[in-house]
Amino acid sequence: MAEIDIKQLSEKLLAKDYPEKDVKRFLAYVDNAVREEKTKADDKKSVTKNNTDALYSLAVKYFNMGVTIDGVNAVVSGYNMVMVTYHGYKNAVLRVYPEAEVDIQLVREGDDFKFAKESGSVVYTHSIADPFEEQEKAIIGAYVVFKTKRGEFLETLNRTDFDKMKNASKMKYLWESWASEFWLKSVIKRACKRHFYDVVAEIDEQDNADYGIEKEVKASDSKKADIIAKAKNGNTTPTPAR
User: Fold this and answer.
1) Beta strand 151-158 with 121-127: parallel, antiparallel or unpaired?
2) What is the pTM of this model?
3) 86-96 vs 179-195: helix axis angle to the nearest 10?
4) Residue 75, helix vs strand vs coil
5) H helices of 172-218, where?
6) Which backbone phi and psi does 195 adopt, to 5 degrees?
7) Mean pLDDT per 10-residue run, the chain (242 residues)?
8) Which of 67, 70, 92, 129 is deepest in the core (most CB within 10 A)?
9) Which residues, including other chains, have CB under 8 Å from residue 176's CB and lie 6 or more apart?
10) If we measure between CA atoms, which residue out of 151, 153, 111, 149 comes closest to residue 133?
């Protein structure tokens, strides 16, 4: 377990121009994790895989993105690695659009979910079959609604798309262990990419690098590579697209 100096972390971060409440939330998260991870097996530790300098660097990196590592918006998931949650994406948008109304929900078997967009306004209903049922029913979808001065948006995610994302992920086992969290994170990532990418671009790029879907070669990239290869061989005529 790495040695972590909470006092040093505090002094270094409070000397920078970050909101004091966010710094204190990060420090409380780290302090709690240090105490809890003393009793955990090495493969179950995440925060204490990092030393003081590594945690400081992570804090600065994510504070600069507008995300607080506090166990809610983001968690330290390993050495020099952080996982942003659906709360992190939601609150990144709220920092820019504080007036926004955000509703993000799971849809389970038996629920009745309907939506429409009328003259730019999102209209939807979601009736839960039995909110007090002891055994949770299977998740069949998720949705998020944003209502901001920028406009009103609704994004959905179905089982087929979720399974494709999970199976193509670098960290498939995490999706299976924390299914409901990844349903919510996946649908809000999709919504933010479509409607608020200027807000979350840096967060999304880092999250995809650590936990996202493996990058696929685009047809345009393949065609470009083919043109370059032919040019090197003295043939500048590209292969016809199929």
Assistant:
1) unpaired
2) 0.83
3) 30
4) strand
5) 172-177, 179-195, 197-211
6) -120, -20
7) 90 94 97 94 92 96 96 95 96 96 97 96 95 89 97 97 92 90 97 96 91 48 37 36 32
8) 67
9) 166
10) 111
Closest CA to 47 of 23, 31, 65: 31
> Looking at the DSSP assignment, which residues form a beta bridge with residue 159?
none
3-state secondary structure of 116: strand
Angle between helices 52-65 and 20-37 (to 10 degrees): 140
Identify the residue whose tokens are 């895989």.
Answer: 49
Tokens of 122: 């999102």
pLDDT, position 81:
92
Taking Cα atoms as reference points, which of 86, 67, 111 lies closest to residue 178?
Answer: 86
Residue 5 CB-density burial (10 A; 0-12 exposed, 13-18 middle, 19+ buried): middle
Distance set, CA 161 to CA 58, 142, 166, 190 (Å): 31, 11, 9, 11
CA separation for the pair 76, 69 (Å, rounded): 7
Q: Give, as one character, the DSSP assignment of residue 43.
A: G
Rounded to whole angstroms, what are the CA distances from 228 to 37, 214, 237, 239? 52, 24, 10, 11
Q: Among candidates 188, 190, 194, 204, which has minimal Cα distance to 105?
A: 188
